[in-house]
Amino acid sequence: MQITLKNPLDMHLHLRDGALLDVVTPFSAKSFAAAVIMPNLTPPIDSLHKAQAYKQAIKDSIHSYAKAHKQPLESFEPLCALYLSDSLTPQELESCAKHGFKLLKLYPKGATTNSDNGIAQVLDSKSYEIFSAAQELGIILCIHGESGGFVLEREMEFGAIFRELATRFPNLKIIIEHISDHRTIPLLEEYDNLYATLTLHHITLDLSNLAGGALCHHHFCKPVLKTPKDKQALLDLALNAHSKVCFGSDSAPHSLEAKQKGAAGIFSAVGLLPQLAELFHKHNALHNLQAFVSDNAMKIYDLACWVQAAQAWEDNPKLITLEQAPYKIPESIRVLDSNLTPLRAGEMIAWREIESKA
Ligand code: DOR
Ligand code: ZN
């Protein structure tokens, strides 16, 4: 059995910088037409200048890899999000929008990796000035929605903030990033301007995979994995390709040493589309995979309107063919003198990627 996906999109991806960027980027660039690249670097990507430089660094890295490996990877489009820090002004946001940077990422201060420069007060006049400018400029607000409360209640507690923002800024598109709690799902129905990205790990794993046996730090991420009920409700959204939900892997690589010290993040970029095909096939939902990994995002983010590359995708799509055949996820991926452990490291999975047309 085979399936060919047209223009797969990963709407939430961490590529990091330096040597890590060079090692992890090809996994996504080979398989996806574009990805939303998260800005939580040190220092954060919180200006037009930094966003332009970061985008160029990603493109340069892809170019070097493509040249060295004689692989046509250049068709990958990095959609770099801006980090909402205290220093980002409405004027800077306007310059960003003019130059095609139309995604803004809000991290509540201290909520996750490299969020020290995030927003301490989401519901205050300074933040509202930014949201109002974003609304005017057609910028999409991507939110890591977690409170500072008890770890399993954080997303639920943030719900009040999603409601307030969705009501106050009805023309601002707001993305609930990596939705993880079944209690957040009704917000998608209640508010026209709320959408969500969904990871592979939140629809296939739960808290038992993290802490049910020996502690498995490779399954530690933020928002933390939740209950089987949450996993099932989110899986249903994915398998039905709910029109307000799209795929965003939140692949977030950390060195083995950093993971052992407790860094949050699951490196899921290796064999990602085969894993999705395996999952959708198992649940007789392969017919919905195209919508989940591409079509929904095209519509939600209106990509054809503001991403130049996307205008060519209809006539000249990036096609990724997957087939039902065994494929082993590597045990680890070397970066300088350290290692990364991918999701499902060393496991045989039932699908593999066989060819792509850029
Ligand atoms: O698990 C996570 N890792 N969640 C995030 O929000 C950030 C990410 C990272 O950057 O490592
Ligand atoms: Zn993330």
TrEMBL record:
This is Dihydroorotase. It comes from the Bacteria. It is an enzyme of class 3 (hydrolase). Its EC number is 3.5.2.3. Keywords: Hydrolase. It comes from Helicobacter zhangjianzhongii.
